[in-house]
Amino acid sequence: MLYGSLRERSFSRLCAEEGARVLTRLGAEVRFYDPSGLPLVDDGVDAGHPKVEELRDLVTWCEGMVWSSPERHGAMTGLMKTQIDWIPLSLGGVRPTQGKTLAVMQVSGGSQSFNTVNQLRILGRWMRLLTIPNQSSVARAWDEFGDDGRMKPSPFYNRIVDVMEELFRFTVLTRDIKDMLVDRYSERVESHAELARRVRTPKS
User: Angle, nearest 10°, between helix axes 11-26 and 155-174?
Assistant: First the structure.
């Protein structure tokens, strides 16, 4: 579970927590990544930074992902994009995200919007994640949660349940065939060594 805000009362995190409760109830093992302390990409820090290693270990471990971001200035937050940018397209010729499932969610302070979930879908497709059809966009998020941090009963909450159920089902249905779903002829004729050389980011 990735979320895109460091506020003490982060609605993107609270939405992710609601989703995690549903997934846990369905039988999934859920882990969160706390982005606090994650450095900017290319800011003199390499992949050996503890927060980067933690993120990459979780991405390698998981079978599915949930990305939950606020919409800020009509787009995902910089924090959300930084987390995604630290996820490599390739680790030793192996793509850590390839064939895994993804659910996208966003929260807005005003009227309902789909800018952020649309952007997250583009990123998910680029990283070869199997992004599920359903999604969640919570408008006026500040009015959708009680003082205890739990979401009030509403169509917005119902949609989060729908999204998590769909993510769980897609993960179970595709877990044993994900390699076949993302198999490409253009890469079968390219060796792992050649692939690694092509996608490796030069050190600077």
Answer: 50
**Where are the extended beta strands (E) located within 5-123?**
64-72, 75-76, 101-107
Q: Compute the residue count for the chain.
A: 204
Contact 71, 115 (CB under 8 A): yes
- Predicted TM-score of the model (pTM): 0.89
* C-alpha–C-alpha distance, residues 59 and 53, integer Å: 10
Distance CA 81, CA 63 (A): 21
Residue 8: exposed, middle, or buried by beta-carbon count in 10 A (0-12, 13-18, 19+)?
A: exposed
- Residue 3 φ then ψ, to 5°: -130, 160
Evaluated on CA atoms 140, 29, 99, 190, the torsion sign reads positive
| pLDDT tens across the length of the chain (204 residues) | 999 999 999 999 999 999 999 999 999 999 999 999 999 998 888 889 999 999 999 999 999 999 999 999 999 999 999 999 999 887 766 788 999 999 999 999 999 999 999 999 999 999 999 999 999 999 999 999 999 999 999 999 999 999 999 999 999 999 999 888 888 888 778 666 677 777 776 654
The structural domains of the chain, ordered by start, are 2-199 (3.40.50.360)
Separation between Cα atoms, residue 79 and residue 71, nearest integer Å: 11
